[in-house]
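Need a sequence for this fold. Nothing fancy.
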């Protein structure tokens, strides 16, 4: 994928159906979600699609389980616009050791998630995520639709 990103935007590589949490998610609930190895960031989104915070594991250190997770997170440095240059964004993510960026419109509404693969060689695609969900669901079970 590295050679194919020149001139591409973040929108061309974002995952369009990220899992989200409610803004009222507690620290304890967030910790439970972070117990899943694929979860690197929680996107706290309201009913109108407005992103309130991006919470990462380290943000929860020293916080009481009963408290809200949203104040622990932030948007600065954890969001990007859909028109941003993909190559520039990828380089910045790699330089910061960041694997997830929420993609938001000018009004702060969540559009998707830029999800850098563990290898650092590309981004998670909608198709790839659906395939993994089907694999995990196994025979006779149904993965959620996107």
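Here you go.
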């Amino acid at each position: 994928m590295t050679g194919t990103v020149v001139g591409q935007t973040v929108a061309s590589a974002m995952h369009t159906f990220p899992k989200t949490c409610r803004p009222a998610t507690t620290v304890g609930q967030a910790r439970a979600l972070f117990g899943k190895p694929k979860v690197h960031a929680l996107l706290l989104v309201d009913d109108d699609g407005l992103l309130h915070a991006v919470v990462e594991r380290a943000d929860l250190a020293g916080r009481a389980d009963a408290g809200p997770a949203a104040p622990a997170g932030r948007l600065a440095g954890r969001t990007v616009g859909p028109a941003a240059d993909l190559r520039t964004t990828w380089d910045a993510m790699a330089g910061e050791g960041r694997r997830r960026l929420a993609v938001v419109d000018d009004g702060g509404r969540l559009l998707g998630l830029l999800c850098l693969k563990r290898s650092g060689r590309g981004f998670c695609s909608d198709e790839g995520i659906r395939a993994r969900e089907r694999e995990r669901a196994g025979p006779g079970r149904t993965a959620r639709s996107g």
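For context: The chain has a mean pLDDT of 89.
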